Amino acid sequence: MSEIRQDQATKRWVVMATERAKRPRDLAPKEAPEVQEEEHSPDCPFCPGNESRTPPEVLAYRDEGGEPNTPGWQARVVPNAFPALRPEGEVEIRQPHWFTSVTGVGAHEVLVESPKHNADLATMSIEDVSVAVRAVAERFEALQQDRRLRYIACFRNHGRPAGSSLTHPHTQIIATPIAPTNVREEIEEARRHYDDRLHCVYCEVMERERECNERIVLETDSYFVFEPFASRWPFETWIVPKRHSAIFTLGGAADIESLAHALHTTLKALHRGVGDPAYNLVLHEAPLRDSCEDYYHWHIEILPRLATAAGFELGTGIWINTVMPEQSAEYLREFVGD
User: Fold this and answer.
1) Is the separation of the CB atoms in 128 and 73 below 8 Å?
2) Burial of 256 from C-beta contacts in 10 A (0-12 / 13-18 / 19+)
3) Based on the structure, what is the number of domains in the chain?
4) Is residue 233, in this structure, part of any structural domain at all?
5) 197 in a domain, yes or no?
6) Domain region containing 281
7) pLDDT in tens for each of the 338 residues of the chain?
8) Does 323 reside within a domain?
């Protein structure tokens, strides 16, 4: 019989459709995918030598120095050529009594993670992944200083089914003058839990999952990686820092390397176990200057596009998952450290 599970952090409901459940191995490719991309593409605006085809960089790391917007970089951050929001102007609310709108002030940046066109966070070296994580942390620190901004979204669309239009490995950062509704709802549920139990729900989820020991994929000194009890998607995976913090912040090199290790290991397991699936990776954090430090907890959600959200999910907000997270976790553990 199918089971309807509730996520304790969000109170979201998910139907675990055991009547039509699939085994994790059923989603793995029968053959290894052919690698068709070259290390350099002359038509790609993100490849070295094509720096003039992007807006001027706002951040770049170069081993041997060099001029801005020239080759020789390890990773670079540039404004999106077709931004959803722009940094110029002031935030103004228009017609607030009914047809409310806010001026589209913000930032839309692209982190080019590697000079290699065919690189990927799952197959790059841990040193190169650390450079990409460092760049995200540095841009977050810079954008947090802008008091016009209320929220910083960081996400990675991998593969065309996940919405990626360019193959070259990249992550996007969008800073907005408003706080997203779904994050507000997460925070409100976390606040209710804290009021009832005087404990962060995300910290408690880690404790309960460790006791249960059925859905853990990886645990390091600093991060806890698991398949949520009420996973919406097959192989949905969360990376949660053990140190409680509402805002995404990393300290020195050790913090950066710790997150890079957890991220790299997790994506590598998905890459090897499920055949490089398309996925959306999203960082959840609290709105800037919000008073929810005690009860909200930043984290990363990886959502492989191995199923389709259709009418039932879109109409009800209740998801249907055909792969049990306990089985997904057991399967992925085979590829951790491989």
Assistant:
1) no
2) buried
3) 1
4) yes
5) yes
6) 3-30+38-87+98-333
7) 789 999 999 999 999 987 766 677 767 665 555 555 789 999 999 999 999 999 999 999 998 878 999 999 999 999 999 999 999 999 988 877 778 899 899 999 999 999 999 999 999 999 999 999 999 999 999 999 999 999 999 999 999 999 998 999 999 999 999 999 999 999 999 999 999 989 999 999 999 999 999 999 999 999 999 999 999 999 999 999 999 999 998 988 999 999 999 999 999 999 999 999 999 999 999 999 988 999 999 999 999 999 888 899 999 999 999 999 999 999 999 999 75
8) yes
| CATH (domain of 202) | 3.30.428.10
Confidence (pTM): 0.93
Of 107, 180, 169, the C-alpha closest to 142 is 107
Identify any residues that bridge with 311 across adjacent strands, giving them in sequence order: none
Residue 309 lies in a domain: yes
Let me know the angle formed at the C-alpha of 140 by 134 and 144, rounded to the nearest 5 degrees: 150
What's the rounded Cα separation, in Å, for the pair 205 and 199? Answer: 10
